[in-house]
Amino acid sequence: LATFETAVSTAWADVERQREERAHAEERFERAQLEAESARRAKQEMESTLYDVAADLGRLALVYRGQGQPEDAVPLYMSALALYEQTLGADHPEVAKDLVNLGNALCDLRRHADAEPLYKRALQIDAVALGEDHPEVAMDLSNLGIVYRVQGRLADAADLFARAHQIMEAAAGPDDPKTQTIARNLAATQQLGDLPP
């Protein structure tokens, strides 16, 4: 009987110890969950702040471009782009928008060769994120067409303008100002290169 009581007492002590260990483990788990949630909120707040800083940098860069100071806009666009990539990811349409803005500032500085890969990357991002027939894709094609025209690649530029015009006309109609601008760029490029309409 004493052996039985000892075994029961030992078993009961083991059960109590396991309950205590489980309670401690649950407490640690709850603390870890609270810490993880706190870290997630802090990360979201930091990303939101970085996003706001990137937007402010982009607006300031636009002001500099508008004042004819693209050399001052370029580093601001580069910083905004880095922040957007960090907070939104490298393939986000906002990143594409900033790639275009940076490319435009570089074109203002006659650095078309530097703008070309930016426009190509923006085109790739927008085509995947928004679809091949989205107006932003048309604008990306048009921007790249401008670079090609400046580089003397008139046939390539005309092809890009033709595709951009097709997309923009289908999306916004023939009377849309962007559609008309692309149509003028296409006609001017065809005329420069003595290309068929």
Explain what the structure shows:
The structure is a single chain. The chain is built from seven helices and no strands. It has helices spanning 2-66, 70-88, 93-108, 112-130, 135-150, 154-172, 177-192. The radius of gyration is 30 Å and the shape is elongated. The mean pLDDT is 92.
How much helix is in the residues? Answer: over 70%
Strand content: under 5%
So how many helices?
A: 7
Indicate the overall shape.
Answer: elongated
Round the mean pLDDT to the nearest integer and report it. 92
- What order do the helices and strands follow? HHHHHHH
Tell me the radius of gyration.
30 Å
By helix and strand content, what is the structural category? mainly alpha
What can be said about the biggest beta sheet?
none
Unreliable spans are: none
Number of strands: 0
Describe, in short, the structure shown.
It is built from 7 helices and no strands. It has 197 residues and is mainly alpha-helical. The N and C termini lie far apart (107 Å).
Keywords for this structure?
mainly alpha, single chain, 197 residues, 0% strand
How are the SSEs ordered, and which strands pair?
Elements: H1 2-66, H2 70-88, H3 93-108, H4 112-130, H5 135-150, H6 154-172, H7 177-192
